[in-house]
Amino acid sequence: MIKISPSILMADFANLGDEIKSVSSADYLHFDVMDGVFVPNISIGLPVLESVRKVTDMLLDVHLMIASPHKYTARFAQAGADIVVFHVEAEMPANISFAINELHALGKKSGLSIKPDTAVSALAPFMDLLDVVLVMAVEPGFGGQSFMNAALPKIAELRYLIDAKNLHCDIEVDGGINPDTARLCIEAGATVLVAGNDVFRAADRAARIMELRSACMM
């Protein structure tokens, strides 16, 4: 089944508890962390994650867009994350393996993400260890950007690799997701869709989540 992960980056932070309740029919809750170094923006961090964990039992899908993520992955796991995804471009290979293994030792799922200009081959050394691969369909750092069609062949390539090796790994796509682009991503092989703008600006958020989840049947 296709999983939907609304990004709270586009939520009203003055009413965050209610905003989270309004998307509780989704499968995950996406939590974007930006440090102003790895990406040109600053968002939210550990204190907000700890607060979010107290008000929902949704699976928390944390995306670290930060420098040296191996220094922080365990802290985000301990603060309430169920899934921690960080960028392959942000780390040396040894630190990537360290962070993945540390997350698994804490009973959490781990994932790696690639920017639009990064080839799928950058993930190859780690595929056997991952629970999630995240394909960015926009440049990381800001919400509300338009979907880049160049993400689709990457999704298809990852689907081929995962199926060929019989891996149990989700393909997540983040950026510019709406019912039209959701269908394209699902057809290419995606299993998790991150949607911020499209969900949080919908008049009926639960209906929008259902529409995204069933996009491949439209």
Explain what you see.
- The chain has 218 residues and is of the alpha/beta class.
- 33% of the residues lie in helices and 20% in strands.
- The chain is built from eight helices and eight strands, in the order βαβαβαβαββαβαβαα.
- It has helices at 16-21, 46-55, 73-78, 93-105, 151-164, 179-188, 197-200, 205-213, and strands spanning 3-6, 28-34, 59-65, 83-87, 109-114, 132-136, 170-174, 192-195.
- β7, α6 (179-188) and β8 form a beta-alpha-beta unit.
**Largest sheet features:** 8 strands, parallel
Structural Rg:
16 Å
Element order, helices and strands? EHEHEHEHEEHEHEHH
Q: What's the end-to-end separation, in Å? A: 15 Å
Mean pLDDT value: 95
Approximately how much beta-strand content do the residues carry?
A: 15-25%
Query: Structural class from helices and strands?
Result: alpha/beta
Total strand segments: 8
Unreliable residue stretches: none
Q: What is the overall silhouette?
A: globular
Topology:
Elements: E1 3-6, H1 16-21, E2 28-34, H2 46-55, E3 59-65, H3 73-78, E4 83-87, H4 93-105, E5 109-114, E6 132-136, H5 151-164, E7 170-174, H6 179-188, E8 192-195, H7 197-200, H8 205-213
Parallel strand pairs: 1-8, 2-3, 3-4, 4-5, 5-6, 6-7, 7-8
Summarize the structure.
The chain has 218 residues and is of the alpha/beta class.
List keywords for this structure.
single chain, 218 residues, 20% strand, alpha/beta, eight-stranded parallel sheet, globular, 8 helices, 33% helix
